[in-house]
Amino acid sequence: MSTNSDKVVITLIFLVSLIISTIGDEVSSANFPIIVSTWPFLKAVSAAWRSVDSGLSAMDAIVEGCSACELLRCDGTVGPGGSPDENGETTIDAMIMNGVTMEVGAVAAMRYVSDGIKAARLVMQHTEHTLLVGEQASIFAISMGLPGPTNLSSEESIEKWINWKKNKCQPNFRKNVLPVNDCGPYHLKSRTNLGEKTCLNTERVGVDESGSYHNHFNLHNHDTISMAAIDKTGHIAVGTSTNGATFKIPGRVGDGPIAGSAAYADSEVGACGATGDGDIMMRFLPCYQVVESMRLGMEPKLAAEDAIARITRKYPDFVGAVFAVDKNGTHAGACHGWTFQYSVRSPDMADVAVYTVNPK
C-alpha cells in the first residue's frame, strides 16, 4: 500500500517529467519560424520574416520575400530590368513549393509580367498543372489579375545588351556552330558555303581557352533567389525567382522553376535552395538530393556537400551552391567555384545574419 509520502514523490516525479518535456518542446520550437535564402538579400529575408513572424504561413512568407526581391531587382538578376537574352528581352522564371502537400506552381520564360512568384502561386492555386511557360504563362497570369502586359526591360538591361552586340555578341551560350556575321544566325559547322562573313572559329562560340562559359558566373552574375521558410507550425515552403542567365538563347529555361533543382521542400524532412549554373544543376536535381539525403539521416552540412560533390565529379568547372535546412531549423551550405553566402533570420536573432561558405 502506498503512503502519502510515496504519492507525493510520484506526483513530484510526474511534474518534473512534464516540465522537462515542456522545456524540450520549447527549445525545439524556439527555432521557428525561420527564413533561409541564397545570398545577402537582406531586405527580401526581412520581408519574409515579418510575414511568418506575424503568424502567416510559410507559403505566404515565400511570396512576400521573393516579391520583395523582384521589386528591388536584387543584384539585377531577380525580377524585371536585368539579364537580357540574345534578343535583348528579359523574361521571368519562378517556382513555389508547399512542403506539406508537395504541390508546386511554376512559370518559365514568362514575358510581360514582372510578378514571377505570385504567378507561380496562381498556377498552384488555380490549375491542376505544375508549370506554365512563355507567353501563355503571361496570358494566364494577367487573366488571374496580375499587372501586365509590362515591358520587363530597363535602361540598364538595354545598355548591357547594346554593349554586348558591339562586342560581337561575346560571350554567349552557343557551341559547335558557326555564325553568319558576328551575331548569327547560327548554322551547324558541317554546313558549307555560308558566305564571306562566316566565322571560322570552330570552338565553342564566346568561350576563351581558359575555361567554359560557366566561369562567367560570379557574385555579380548569379541568377536566382532561392528561399526556404518554416512557419510557427513547422510547415515548410520554398520558392525561387530569377530573370535567367545573361545573354541566354531565347526560350532557355534554367533550374529556377524546376522542382528539386533550385529548390525543394518536404515538411517531414527539411528544405534546400540552390544558385549558380542552372543548366548544369538541373541535370542533377541537387535540392531533391539534399532533402532525400537528410531523409536518410544525413546532417544538413554533409547533405549539401554531397549534392555539390555529385555535380563536380562530372563537371569540375561547375560554379554553384546549395543551402540545406532540416525540419528542426539546423542549416548549412556548400559550394564550388566561388565563395557562397546565404542569409538566415530566426527567433534568436536580432536581425538577418549572413553566413559565408568557402569552396572546398
From TrEMBL:
One of its GO terms (molecular function) is beta-aspartyl-peptidase activity. InterPro entries: Ntn_hydrolases_N, Peptidase_T2. Residues 1-24 form the signal peptide. Substrate binds at residues 252-255, 275-278. The active site is at residue 224. Its EC number is 3.4.19.5. It comes from the Eukaryota. SUPFAM superfamilies: N-terminal nucleophile aminohydrolases (Ntn hydrolases). The record marks 223-224 as: Cleavage. Keywords: Autocatalytic cleavage, Hydrolase, Protease, Signal. Heterotetramer of two alpha and two beta chains arranged as a dimer of alpha/beta heterodimers. PANTHER family: L-ASPARAGINASE, N(4)-(BETA-N-ACETYLGLUCOSAMINYL)-L-ASPARAGINASE. Belongs to the Ntn-hydrolase family. This is beta-aspartyl-peptidase. It comes from Perilla frutescens var. hirtella.
